[in-house]
From TrEMBL:
Name of the featured protein: Exo-alpha-sialidase
Signal peptide extent: none
SUPFAM superfamilies, per database record: Oligoxyloglucan reducing end-specific cellobiohydrolase
Lineage: Bacteria, Bacillati, Actinomycetota, Actinomycetes, Propionibacteriales
InterPro entries the UniProt entry points to: WD40/YVTN_repeat-like_dom_sf (IPR015943), Xyloglucanase_GH74 (IPR052025)
Length: 373
């Protein structure tokens, strides 16, 4: 497979609680070759297929792995996982003047297409954002966000306190949108010099009546956008799905028509900016699909109306899909991927109408990321 970022092959990274698996296919994405586990028995919460770097026409693969013995590390491969490299000490570490330690790398994201090729962003637990300028080999802490006066009041979601969303503006490298559970959405417009909360209109349903629309403190689960419409953002909250038309200055609920307003992922179609996907989970401690039916819900009109798609998905399912376990590739006929907590991963190449398995019986899937190779 040749031509990083423009090849006809497909590479799919599947991060789990017990390692990483890598699946490769052609553009049809019907038959897959799967290797793994890479980083055996380590938690892999974040992956990135980065077409800007790599070697011999292949994209660089990055994985945020966490060992219970040695801690977290960002590792990279320029040969589709045949070999891996890491910076001694892990690359993402607080300095000696900070009384904290990185527990997990929850997010890896490429820099803005309008910026330098080597920029990679990382979001960690505890809640911090980091920037690399050398393709993910070393990272520097975003100091202004770490020292933000509101940080002391950020809480923790059930999985821990972490920056799980990082969205550099596609046309303005100095503008970055991030999100943390729990804390909400924050933005910088001056290349990290300052950060401001951007949560107006997002409800924190777990707070008392009259206090449910605070400046910050929302339990945002994921934020997404289409690169051609950067001012429009979509957000899956702890309760509610939202759209912003003004780059997060305000948010409007769009969950009417869904069977539940709780969920983790939200994905925008790579070629259709009006089309987005969510995976609703019912209320209660179980957090499984409503009526026990695995369905990916699609809107073709930016959240005005919704329709389910699930042909090929399990008819009886009581497992969840995590915030980064749904994603899309950018083939001309885009592929949509869903990974579940029972270790199964499915792909759809017809905009979510029909699904077929890529692999089953893996450990608990935390993240799926796909790209060309």
């Amino acid at each position: 497979m040749t031509g990083a970022g423009s090849g006809t092959g497909t590479v799919l990274m599947i991060g789990t609680r017990k390692g990483l698996w890598i699946a490769t296919s052609d553009e049809a994405r019907e038959d897959w070759e799967v290797t793994g586990p890479h980083h055996d028995m380590e938690e892999v919460y974040s992956c990135l297929v980065d077409p800007r770097t790599g070697s011999q026409g292949r994209p660089r693969l990055l994985a945020g792995a966490s060992s219970s013995w040695t801690g977290p590390s960002v590792r990279w491969s320029d040969d589709l996982g045949a070999s891996w490299h890491e910076t001694p000490g892990g690359g993402v570490r607080f300095g000696p003047d900070v009384d904290a330690s990185v527990e997990r790398v929850w997010q890896l994201a490429p820099g803005s297409p309008a910026g330098p090729d080597g920029v990679v962003w990382a979001g960690t637990e505890p809640g911090a954002v980091w920037r690399s300028v050398d393709g993910g080999e070393t990272f520097a802490l975003e100091e202004a966000l770490w020292h933000h006066p509101q940080r002391a009041e950020w809480g923790e979601g059930y999985g821990g306190q972490a920056f799980h969303t990082i969205l550099p503006h596609p046309a303005d490298p100095a503008s970055v949108t991030v999100a943390i559970s729990t804390g909400g959405v924050y933005q910088t417009h001056d290349d990290g010099g300052s950060w401001t909360a951007a949560n107006r209109g997002i409800r924190a349903e777990f707070l008392p009546e009259g206090q449910q629309y605070p400046e910050f403190g929302q339990c945002v689960h994921k934020v997404a956008r289409h690169p051609d419409h950067p001012e429009r953002l979509f957000l899956q909250n702890h309760g509610g799905v939202y759209r912003s038309e003004d780059h997060a200055a305000s948010w409007t609920p769009i969950h009417d028509g869904l069977p539940a307003d709780f969920g983790f992922p939200v994905v925008v179609h790579p070629h259709q900016p009006e089309t987005l996907y969510v995976y609703p989970l019912g209320a209660g401690e179980g957090r499984y699909p409503p009526d026990g039916r695995a369905l990916v819900w699609r809107s073709r009109d930016a959240g005005t109306s919704w329709e389910p798609g699930g042909q090929g998905l399990p008819e009886h399912s009581y497992v969840g899909v995590m915030r980064d376990a749904m994603s899309a590739d950018d083939h001309d006929r885009a592929g949509l991927y869903v990974g579940a907590r029972n270790g199964a991963v499915w792909v759809s190449t017809d905009d979510g109408e029909r699904w077929r398995p890529v692999v089953t019986d893996l450990p608990d899937v935390m993240v799926v990321r796909a790209g060309r190779c």
